[in-house]
Structure formats: C-alpha cells, structure tokens
Amino acid sequence: MVDEIQTRVGKLRPIHVMDREADDYSLLAKLTAEAGRFIIRINEGRVLEHEGRPPSSETPHLNEALQVLEGTVLRTVVLSRRVAKNKKNARSHASRDRREANLSVRALQVRVQKPYNVKHETKALTLNVVQVFEPSPLRTRSRSAGRWRPVNPSPPSPKSPRWSTGTALAGWSKNSSRR
Questions:
Q1: Strand partners of residue 100
Q2: Which of these CATH numbers, 3.60.21.10, 3.40.1010.20, 3.90.350.10, 3.40.50.620, describes 12-51+59-77+98-131+146-173?
Q3: Radius of gyration of the chain (CA)
Q4: What is the pLDDT of residues 125-159, one digit of tens each?
C-alpha cells in the first residue's frame, strides 16, 4: 500500500499514518531505508537491540525504556463519549463518558532488534518513539489507559519539518515549533 500511495502522489512526500496492524519489522525497515515519513502505532513489548544475542529474560524491551522517562509535555484534552460496539473489543475499547484527560508525552530514540522469525537483511532499526499516555487514568471497566506509541525514523532538524504533538496523536507539520 505504501508503494501504491507513493505512486499516486508522485514527488510529494506523504506521511504514512498507520495503526497497530502495520507494526511489522519489514515495513518499518522499508520505510526507514527509503527515508519515508511515517507514524506507526507499535507494540510496547518490542525487543530493543541487544548486541545480536537471542532474547532472554534480561533482554530490554521498549516499554521498559519508556518507563524510566518522565513526561516532558503535559496537555489536557477532551475525550469523547464512547459506547462499546461489541464484546470482542469491549476490553480494549470499553464504553466511557465524555471527560477531560490530562495527557503526558515522552520520547526517545531506540534501536529495535530484528525479530528472529523475520527474514530481513537489516539487523536493527533506529526509530524515534513518542508515547502519549494518561498518567492517572480514571478507573473504568477497561484496562486500557489510552496509550499511543507512534514511531518515526528521524528526529527533526532545523531544515526539516519539526516533530509536533497533537491531542493524542503525534505527527509532522511544516512551520511548527517543538511543543
């Protein structure tokens, strides 16, 4: 799909925004190698680079690397009312009332290890990870605390669009300053 979109837009450089289903090492490697701009919601259990050794109980994971950071940006947003549509998704998308949420943002650059079951020449990828989370969520029937972990391959530079954070989504925007 990424190739199809690039063909359609020609010389423009789109920002590909994808949900968890796109959390695929091969896709991340392709986008990174092509200097693609992307935001992909990724699994917090992803294994970080660990000198080529097989994973073990000591292998560092993304969620552990993020937990040691304090949120650097705080923002209050309004979460809309949501009604659970079916039992299958009731745990991750539970019903909730409309309310304000205080979100925190933290970011870091990581080297993600290639999973051993993936055949790819790239052994590890450098990714920028931004986590948007609610530090003290209201207790609901859902265990979900509204976390988003989008990734992007390169940090902003003075000559490139800057990384900015939105309500509960991170993305690129021209002429914006770091928030």
A1: 78
A2: 3.90.350.10
A3: 17
A4: 899 999 888 887 765 444 444 555 556 555 544 33
